[in-house]
Amino acid sequence: MVSIKRLNTLSFQEAADLFNEGFKHYFTDITLTVDSLIKKLANEDLSPEKSVVAFDQEKPVGFVINGFRTVNGQKISWNGGTGIIPEYRGKGIGKEMITACMDIYEEEGAELLLLEAISENTRAIKLYESMGYSIFDELTFLVNNEPLSEGAFYFEGDYDLIHGIPQDVRDIEFYQHMTAWQTQYQSLKDSESLIVKCGQETVGYAVFKRTKNAEGKIEGIALYQCEAKPGYEKAHDVIQFMLRSVYSPAEPACRRMTVNFSKSNKLVCDALSKEGFTVMIEQVHMSKAVRTPSSSETETKAVQS
User: Fold this and answer.
1) Of 98, 177, 197, 235, which one's alpha carbon is 20 to 30 angstroms from that of 23?
2) Residues 192, 209: contact at Cβ < 8 Å?
3) What is the model's pLDDT at position 25?
4) Where is the N-acetyltransferase domain (predicted)?
5) Is the pLDDT assigned to residue 300 strictly greater than 60?
């Protein structure tokens, strides 16, 4: 008999061990230390108190980690990872945990539920669909480990570039609030932003992260968002300008990639494919709208009970 408890009943070490075992033999290598787990919880607004663990007697065998944010006045919940240790998969434990999470989402007044799933993981996608989720976007990890040509991302035009932090882009009129959770500015506390101006007009923005080794050399560049102003006549050149600024063709070979990047952003995806970026992983972006009871409905229910 499996019982469901909250994640905060485990120590951080126990939670990290369960996380790593729960994603064992997964589609990608996901391994966390205690320190990286704590950092992940903080950066991505994940709540151990509002996440669940499945137990077989005293043994933790699965988990769902949940995060919560308010975006444009709407309470959003995110399933930041569902994992089950290998010998317990296929036994219905995932459905039990997701069902328990639905109660938590209702308690928290969540209006929209979000998650991502590896496109190849058809079993998980079918489970989420059975719980009322539906696919609304496709996401891609594109990667290029080779040097870029000097002429990569050629553009025409004269633009001004403002360097800053991710929070700087949140008030841009066309900022994309509903990108994948880990690509939203709130999750990118140690990243950078670019804002592109043409005169006084803001015509584009990007959010990305550069990682460096002990000698200060760039080892990786990860792009999370890259958007041109909708309807802008020179959007192609703005995108090319930002990609050239982010990926620095003059730098030697390093791991240049996108993270959970929307495939619907054709300008960016086509530009990267042209420069030799290839697909590493693809995911589906899923959502479920939830109607929370109004205060009057809650009061009526309380009186009736």
Assistant:
1) 177
2) yes
3) 75
4) 2-160
5) no
